[in-house]
Amino acid sequence: MKIDQTNINEAHKPYIIAELSANHGGDLSRAKESITKAAEVGVSAIKIQTYTPDTMTLDSLQDDFIVKDGLWAGRSLYELYTEAYTPYEWHEELFNHAKNCGVTIFSTPFDETAVDLLESLNTPAYKIASFEIVDLPLVKYIASKNKPILMSTGMASQTEIEEAVTSVRANGDCELLLFHCISSYPAVTEDSNLRNLNWLREKFGVEVGLSDHTTNNIAALTAIGMGAVAVEKHFKLDTNDCGPDSSFSLSVEELQSLVIECNEAWTAKGSFGFKRAHSEAQNMVFRRSLYFVNSLKKGQSISRNDIRRIRPGYGLPPKYFDSILGREVTKDVHPGEAVTLKNVSKM
Questions:
Q1: What does the record list as coiled-coil region(s) (predicted)?
Q2: Cβ atoms within 10 Å, residue 131
Q3: Where would I find the H helices in 90-215?
Q4: How far from the centroid of its chain's Cα atoms is residue 187's Cα?
Q5: What's the CA angle centered on 239, arms 233 and 243, to 5 degrees?
Q6: 190 and 313: one domain?
Q7: What Rg value do the Cα atoms of the chain yield, rounded?
Q8: pLDDT per position as a tens digit, 226-285
Q9: CATH number, domain at 312?
């Protein structure tokens, strides 16, 4: 996959997506400052969310529309989305600001009008949220735009994921990346179930990532080690922010740590093969090798008591111990002298 000329695969550093979500606090200048800070700490992309309260739900206080438990218990959906949404009239300015900061920006659309707005801004990609993976008409509409799609799979059954992937592939010519996700806010590390990354990759033949709602970097770093090529995390401008998503969002400093640590985790994977690391070379001399422990005159035979397998490693490897026994020394040797091809008869 490639977004804005950036390759997203295991051969390249992890693609780190900073999700702004509701952490702009209803303030455009704060949203722009957040983008600036995220760009400065080296994220690959900024992601926002494109909806209005009316495109998400009804303005109703009926029981069905009240959050029953969790972080937002007791609030109506309409109230929650009114506080959290990013106004449509901000989008062009946010896209332009991100471009000026040198960082990619794209969004999660929650209905067709949002897709149309993002198309008018020439979005380079789309993210499909876990909650919308079952909205197949929306999935198909997004796919029809033939842009790269990143799709989260939180809460989805295998059948639902298969239906969404089939819908993407049948309705557009799109590169697809699937995000494993635990749709809990915040999520706990022990629920991460990162082995699902392997299933998603093998089942659908796609690159995989992690949309991470935990409050630490353990799951993200483990996912990178398991082959994830992208990580998405919510972030906030200030540690003391108290918006709808703040409790599971990283501070700017924590976001910077995520970028650094994910890159280090990717580097640590290396490539397959048992080649010696450059940093190991100087320690080769501390491996065991063969040394004389008795003095011998030229022509004498070497007995078991005359040599030992010890450190350092300037002599012949220990595997030649038995082969050396009974051979003659070709010169006078002394204790502490390495056994080499120059001081023993031909093997």
A1: none
A2: 15
A3: 91-101, 112-120, 136-143, 158-171, 196-204
A4: 17
A5: 70
A6: no
A7: 30
A8: 999 999 999 999 888 878 888 899 999 999 999 999 999 999 999 877 788 888 888 999
A9: 3.90.1210.10
What does the alpha-carbon distance between residue 140 and residue 164 come to, in Å, rounded to a whole number? 8
- pLDDT tens sequence across 291-342: 999 999 999 999 999 999 999 999 999 999 999 999 999 999 999 999 999 9
Is 196 part of a structural domain of the chain?
yes
Of 157, 143, 79, the closest CA to residue 115 belongs to: 143
Same domain? For 161 and 288 the reply is no
The widest CA-to-CA distance across the chain, in whole angstroms, is 102
Q: Are residues 204 and 337 in the same domain?
A: no
Of 210, 243, 269, the position where a domain reaches its end is: 269
Q: Are residues 152 and 200 in the same domain?
A: yes
Dig out the tokens for 152 from the structure: 């989260």
Using left for φ > 0, alpha for ψ between -120 and 50, and beta otherwise, residue 298 falls in beta
